[in-house]
Each structure stands twice: as structure tokens, then as C-alpha cells.
Amino acid sequence: MHALVVDDSRAMRRIVAGILTTLHFQTVEADNGATALAELEQLTAADRVPALACIDWNMPVMDGLELVSAIRADRRWRDITLMMVTTESEHGQIVRALAAGAHEYLIKPFTADAMADKLRYLGLVPAEVNA
Amino acid sequence: MSVDGEVLAELTQAVWESFVDAEMPLVDLYDAPLETGPDGVVVGTIAIHGPEAGRVNVALPAQAASAAAARMFDIDPSAVAEADVHDATGELANMIGGNVKAMLAGEHHLGLPSVTVAPTDPYDAVASATLLWGEHTLLVTLDRAPGGTS
Lengths: 131, 150
Prior knowledge:
The complex is a heterodimer of chains A (131) and B (150).
Chain A: E1 2-6, H1 10-22, E2 26-30, H2 33-45, E3 52-55, H3 64-72, E4 81-86, H4 91-100, E5 104-107, H5 112-121
Parallel strand pairs in A: 1-2, 1-3, 3-4, 4-5
Helix pairs in contact in A: 2-3
Chain B: H1 5-19, E1 27-30, E2 41-49, E3 54-61, H2 62-72, H3 82-101, E4 109-110, E5 114-116, E6 124-133, E7 136-144
Antiparallel strand pairs in B: 1-6, 2-3, 2-4, 2-5, 3-7, 6-7
């Protein structure tokens, strides 16, 4: 199963990708929404549409909310589960992200177990696989 | 700002426990001074823009920053590169800053994190916390920007 990790922080991409690799995902990384869309086009062309995208909110060029909206607007990517992974913890921001089409919301800081629990809840990780 | 040293310490402890070391939590030393160590200090800074504008600074001895990076990225301590230290310290500032921002009244947004190898000139510090990690100390400060907004 493939996952796209989108964050302008190389540190956070490494952390999230590391957790997802432990959970048996193959990861592709992008540093903003625009590069994420380019990666998605390439993955789609290779018939490797990811099952999951973990998306930061605050990024240059194209932020996470714009990316969520762009993915949701494209029928080729309607099966991708979108999880916001961000420090934006205000209730209004969470509502905006879910309204734009995000499925889940994970607030930094989080633990590997918390991410695994979210993915189990979404049906993307079997119960017996641990982070 | 509605964030004092105790809150700053709690936010830092939560970030540290999640991403650096869950086995050895940070101990709050309150107003103790930062012990800089022989190799200088690494400082991660992130600006908060808005009505209560300021900066969050995370300062730690270079040796501690390297050890934290090794744990954060699960790499051998001997293999830690300068870029790893910068990534780790900047992300710590980013996450602590993001949680501080969430506690401020009104709409604020974060700048991009920066990392220096010596302390930056502080604005008027409104909160600070010194924390102990093993034999290392780290200092987290919240400064207020001149004029209130930036």
C-alpha cells in the first residue's frame, strides 16, 4: 500500500514516513501541495495511486487545505484517505479541514501509536500491526 | 500573552515525549540557567504573527541537539549530520510554536522555523522554561515582538 507524506518540514516528513514504513506502507514525500499534486500525477500514471495522504496545513506555495480541496475535486483520487497532520488545533480549523474533504485529523505532537490507531480506525492498518 | 513558563514547559514536555524521548521525560527546572556545554548552543526559532506576535525559541547545547536528532530520526548518534540537527531543532520550535499559537486569543499564524548556532537577541521575554533531559538542559522562551504585531 502506498502513502503520500506532504509536509514542508523535512524532519516531519522523515518522522511520518518512518512510522508509515513500520506500518508496511511504501511512502512518497512532497514538500508542499503543488509538488504533492505532481507526485500524485506520476503515481497515477504508474497505476500506484496511494491509499493514504498525510498532509500538513501550513506549507509554502500551496497549503494543505488547498491540497485537500484539489484532491477531492479530482475523481481519479476519490479513494485516497486524507489525514491532516498539523499543529493547527483550533476547532474552527478542524471543521474547515473536514468540510474540505479530509477524513481524519492528527494534531502535532502525536505518538506513533496515536497515528497507528487512527489508521486502524480508517481500515488502513490491520489490527495486528503495531507502530 | 496567556502563556507562562509553566505552560511553556508542559507544551515542550509533550512534544519531547512524543518525538524525542518517551522514556526520559523533561524535568522542569523553572528559572535555572541554560548550561551551554563546550560546543555552543543550537537555537530553533519560529515567529508567531498576529495580535500577540512574538517568537518561540528553543535553545539547547549542541551535544544535546545532536542526541535529540538521533532519537527523533532513529539514527545512530555517530551518524548525525549538521542538517539533521537543524531539521530536528527547527521542527521542535515549529511544534512548540504551533501549540503556543493555539493558546493565543485571536487569529495568528506561524512563520517558517530558523536555526542558528548561537542565541538570537531576544525581544522582551514574557515566558521561559528551563528543562532537564538527562545531563542536558534546554531553554524555551517566548518573546514578544516590538509593537505587538509583525
